[in-house]
């Protein structure tokens, strides 16, 4: 009981603090735009002599053409390889070798593209030649120079991630090393070199085999998305299908890179121990003369409404899983906040309806959750996920999940539940924005997907206006059989023979 009281007091205190923090964001966030289109967002915090610096490119796997799938994820790997000055001992001597490597790789892929008609001896000869040329180029490579430079200067958490809607590079470092960050990252934006491309492509193919093809849960997820989206690129895996990766070339990646990874498609957030006017000058000095690229075009293809329930099954060596998805609106669109409230009521936390019903009371499942995926910029999915508890079946769990969804339509949620949701959302918002990195992440994310970071300050007011009638209306309109996709992971030998 003492522990529960302490947790409750913590939530109340944090919830009380949040309005002050969120309201203050309007005054605390300083924006600056440069002539080349680069957007800079800053928040001055002097709680520690550190800064978080995030660069968000507004380009992700959703922006790939059919012959480019996997290129955004591949570039995430490649942009750690260096520039004309970093990652190499002699770029002038290295470049001719890189050109020879690309010529050989293009010839090899052209032969491989013939499929069954490809000449095996020619492919083998070109593969061997490519390996030899890559070996020659290795003598000029300085491995992990970005990482080493940051580590020697107190940088931590240096990383990147690619998603459907964007690609982000991040680092936290001492505030007196911010100029080092500006020098490194502007060099990477201006003069990246995709060295070791085909060596790294092999690494990505192994990642694909290990983390997707050999992992039943991951295979369920990407098969499920492919079933949900028949037209929109949200249905394609960010890493790409294996055949996509196999035919990615350095030339293709460089075209994508130079087109989109440019200042006019970038948002920088710097949060921490800074003097904003000095940061504006610093970023302008290092990034201001980088030419803009091509603005990322919107994805115009639209997913047609489903005409009936879709079902997929993946058989693998893993415990059963259940996924249920309903198409919904994009981030910031009408009723998006209603889906967030529904998600909190159903599946977020141990007091949520699904956990209490399926895990505690009926003991049908070991775990349940609700979430939104796979992106935010375009209409996405409201998802329910559960892991059945033996000896209960996936079918039992599916019916129990759908029963709770139907209950939303028939029974108005209570004012107490709505207040709990608001407290939970506020607590989570405080947690996410309590660190420099958390705030930098949110600023870049919402500037890119909602159109403005100010979504952070207006969102909670919209949530407060959600009524029980709104929840019933949205559940009735969207949580229908025809708008539903169900995915089941079945254990080998459980119900049907493995083919």
Mean pLDDT: 92
End-to-end C-alpha gap? 53 Å
Report the strand count.
Answer: 11
Q: Strand pairing plus helix content: what structural class?
A: alpha+beta
Counted by DSSP, the helix tally is 18
Give the helix proportion (percent range). Answer: 40-55%
Model description:
It is a single chain. This protein has 499 residues and is of the alpha+beta class. It is built from 18 helices and 11 strands. It has helices spanning 2-28, 71-78, 91-112, 120-137, 145-152, 178-190, 197-213, 216-228, 242-246, 250-260, 276-287, 336-347, 353-361, 394-410, 415-433, 436-449, 455-464, 468-478; strands at 29-33, 39-44, 50-57, 156-162, 167-174, 266-272, 310-316, 321-327, 365-373, 381-388, 484-491. A 6-stranded mixed beta sheet has the order 1-2-6-3-5-4, sandwiched between helices. A 5-stranded mixed beta sheet has the order 7-11-8-10-9, sandwiched between helices. β4 and β5 form a beta hairpin. α3 packs antiparallel against α4 (120-137). The N and C termini lie far apart (53 Å). The relative contact order is 0.16.
């Amino acid at each position: 009981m003492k522990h529960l009281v302490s947790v409750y007091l913590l939530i109340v205190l944090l919830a009380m603090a949040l309005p002050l923090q969120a309201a203050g964001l309007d005054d605390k966030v300083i924006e600056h735009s440069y002539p080349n289109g680069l957007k800079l967002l800053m928040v001055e915090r002097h709680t520690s002599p550190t800064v978080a610096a995030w660069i968000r490119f507004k380009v992700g796997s959703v922006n790939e053409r059919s012959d480019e799938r996997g290129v955004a994820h591949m570039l995430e790997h490649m942009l750690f390889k260096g520039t004309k000055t970093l990652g190499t001992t002699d770029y002038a001597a290295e470049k001719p070798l890189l050109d020879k490597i690309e010529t050989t790789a293009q010839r090899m892929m052209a032969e491989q593209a013939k499929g069954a008609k490809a000449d095996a001896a020619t492919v083998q000869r070109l593969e061997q030649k490519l390996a030899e040329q890559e070996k020659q180029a290795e003598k000029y490579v300085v491995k992990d120079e970005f990482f080493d430079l940051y580590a020697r200067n107190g940088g931590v958490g240096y990383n990147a991630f690619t998603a459907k809607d964007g690609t982000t590079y991040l680092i936290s470092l001492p505030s007196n090393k911010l100029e080092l960050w500006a020098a490194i990252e502007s060099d990477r934006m201006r003069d990246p070199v995709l060295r070791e491309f085909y060596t790294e492509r092999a690494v990505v193919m192994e990642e694909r085999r290990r983390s997707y093809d050999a992992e039943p849960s991951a295979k369920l997820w990407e098969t499920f998305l492919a079933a949900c989206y028949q037209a929109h690129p949200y249905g394609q895996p960010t890493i790409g299908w294996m055949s996509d990766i196999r035919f990615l070339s350095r030339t293709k990646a460089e075209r994508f890179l130079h087109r989109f990874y440019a200042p006019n498609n970038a948002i920088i957030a710097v949060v921490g121990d800074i003097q904003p006017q000095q940061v504006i000058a610093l970023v302008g000095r290092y990034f201001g003369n980088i030419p803009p690229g091509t603005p990322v075009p919107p994805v115009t293809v639209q997913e047609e409404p489903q005409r009936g329930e879709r079902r997929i099954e993946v058989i693998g060596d893993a415990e059963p899983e259940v996924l249920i998805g309903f198409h919904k609106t994009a981030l910031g669109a009408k009723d998006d906040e209603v889906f967030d409230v529904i998600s909190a009521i159903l599946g977020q936390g141990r007091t949520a309806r699904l956990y209490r019903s399926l895990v505690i009371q009926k003991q049908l499942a070991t775990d349940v959750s609700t979430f939104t995926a796979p992106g935010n910029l375009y209409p996405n999915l409201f998802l329910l996920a559960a892991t059945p508890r033996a000896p209960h079946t996936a079918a039992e769990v599916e019916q129990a999940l759908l029963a709770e969804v139907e209950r939303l339509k028939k029974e108005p949620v209570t004012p107490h539940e709505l207040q709990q949701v608001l407290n939970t959302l506020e607590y989570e918002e405080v947690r996410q924005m309590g660190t420099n990195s958390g705030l930098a992440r949110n600023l870049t994310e919402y500037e890119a997907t909602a159109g403005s970071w100010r979504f952070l300050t207006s969102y909670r007011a919209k949530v407060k206006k959600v009524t029980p009638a709104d929840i019933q209306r949205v559940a009735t309109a969207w949580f229908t059989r025809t708008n539903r996709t169900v995915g089941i992971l079945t254990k080998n030998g459980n119900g049907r023979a493995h083919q």
